[in-house]
Amino acid sequence: MSTYDLTQGRVAGSLARLTAPMMAGVSSSILVQMLELGFIGQLSTAHVAAITFTFPMVMVLTSIALGISIGTSSVIARSVGNRQVSAATGVTEDRGKDEVARLGTHSLILVFALMIVISGLCWLAIDPLFLAIGASPELLPLIHSYLDIYLPGTILFTTTMICGSVMRASGSANIPGAIMTIGALVNLILDPIFIFGWFGFPAMELAGAATAMTLTRFGTLVISLWYINADNLVLRQGHFSGWLRSAKRILHVGLPAMATNLIGPVTAAYITFLIADYGEAAVAGFGVANRIEAVAAMLMFALSGSIGPFVGQNWGAQMVDRVRAGVRASYMFCLFWGLLVTLPLFFFGRELASLIDGSGPVVAVAAVYFSIVPLSYGLWGVLMMASASFNALGKPLPSTALSFGRMIIVYVPLATLLNDAFGYVGIFIATALSNVLFGIVGAKWFAQRLNAMSRQLAHQH
User: Fold this and answer.
1) Number of domains in the chain
2) How confident is residue 231, by pLDDT bands cut at 50, 70 and 90?
3) Which of 72, 341, 371, 408 has the highest count of CB atoms within 10 angstroms of its CB?
4) In a 10 Å sphere around its CB, with 0-12 CB exposed, 13-18 middle and 19+ buried, how is residue 459 labelled?
């Protein structure tokens, strides 16, 4: 497995090597999710609305696993970077790699056990939760048909996510990127077979989408475990000892990262509740817009997964100027990309939405969304980079504070107020304003914190 020392070479080149495979994996996964929603849209608007209602719960599960993934990446990347400055003291490469392997193994155990418990609790909460956020009783069978299969599959998906984090934090993005890409393509092939009942299979509708996803996740987990075990990154003799110490290190960053990521699903549930007042078609339109938005933002998602290992390794190697240069480059890319995708969404958002669900009311809601929210994508990406960089430095609380401030202090009250004044249009305006404000705040705060930490580092020497 190819690995990269992210403390050497051109900053842009290092980020590109790390981001390109990640981009392929993330973009293929997001594109498949959008195409899957297109398949579901051929069933009925009710099916699209049911899937949209599941988004917050799916985001909760992903956010918890992502928190552990971020904690794993932060600890391992800084450990890899420390090896660059510890060689002179007699710390061997084997000892350093053994520490990385132990952390990876303990992270896999942590996420596997945690997701068994949490997915079970989520299953028990399906009926009361979805009724509370505005789903009609008639939608509950559709929601169940999806989540009854999806929730057990979450355990497979989140464990695969940790495998990818271990590889990327060690400087290798090619294998996890390839696994994500191939898995997405297999998922896309299986989706219509199980949803519509091709080749003699029964038509399972939403249950078919969940089945295709779960089978794919099982395959990607097996391949991921094989790769990291073959490269001695996990699951070797002696790697199971000291679990509690490793868990504390991982969760020092992981717990605040979980809290940061959980704020989003909680807010999404509330926003879905607000939009549900405008009917099933409005919820479906919001869901369609969210899926297309994920495609538009996929390169920023990929870069946010790459900037963390880059910052972590270089901070661990005490290369502050490379940290600063890498973060600046990520900001500039986000601003450029945000501008690039805003124009086509503004002018062609209606046509894109109609490809997923041709219902007039659904398309109308999505079109309004794309006339407002994409204007804030560039600074939304800047916020992603600042948050990922805080976590990579082992300073997760500012990232949590940014997310809490953006979602709870600004977005929720503003969306409520503007919803009363302008309807769901006001909710979309609140989304854009909160993205812009906290993108600026996040960039300024990270610059101040990095300067303060670099002065402390200089003082120690």
Assistant:
1) 1
2) low
3) 72
4) exposed
